[in-house]
Amino acid sequence: MSYADLARRWAETRTSDLDAHAELYAADELFVIESRKVDDHLADTISDRADLRRQLAFWTNEDAGNGQGVHSLTLRETLEGNGHLLLHWDYAVEGLDAFHGLPVEGRVLTSKGSTFLQLDGDGKIVLESTFLNETPLYQQVGVPLVTPHYWVEGFDPAALAA
Questions:
Q1: 87 φ, ψ (degrees, to nearest 5)
Q2: CA-based nearest residue to 8, from 85, 71, 60, 118
Q3: Among residues 87, 100, 81, which one has the least CA distance to residue 14?
Q4: Is the pTM higher than 0.85?
Q5: Is 153 domain-assigned?
Q6: What are the residue ranges of helices labelled H in the chain?
Q7: Residue 15's closest CA among 57, 54, 75?
């Protein structure tokens, strides 16, 4: 499978078929998925198929009425080389009742994410590190987070104090 095909398959199966998704990874205990960045290393690391199916199950929810949201992921860019892939993707969730305890009130929440994949010699995933930018999601449910564009020429840090 080419890198481009693997990237497409990863994006498609993440939200539709966890059994097919699990087949993209090396054998149990030979792969690691880091996605939640919590304090407990054991709680945020997936390294077997049972954990993969349990911890990633929310991605494949198809019931728009159960409040857990129907998640979609659209691959936008794939950078590849030396047994590694970097995927940039758009994210949306529809039918979610609450986002981290905050009411969604029927909104479709959208953001962007990135995933780094390291592959073994057989083209199986041995390391995944995924990051979903949650700042826009919080903003869409009404949390007043400021996201200054400090890289823009003429940006004045004093404007943040206003």
A1: -110, 135
A2: 85
A3: 87
A4: yes
A5: no
A6: 3-14, 18-22, 49-55, 135-140
A7: 57
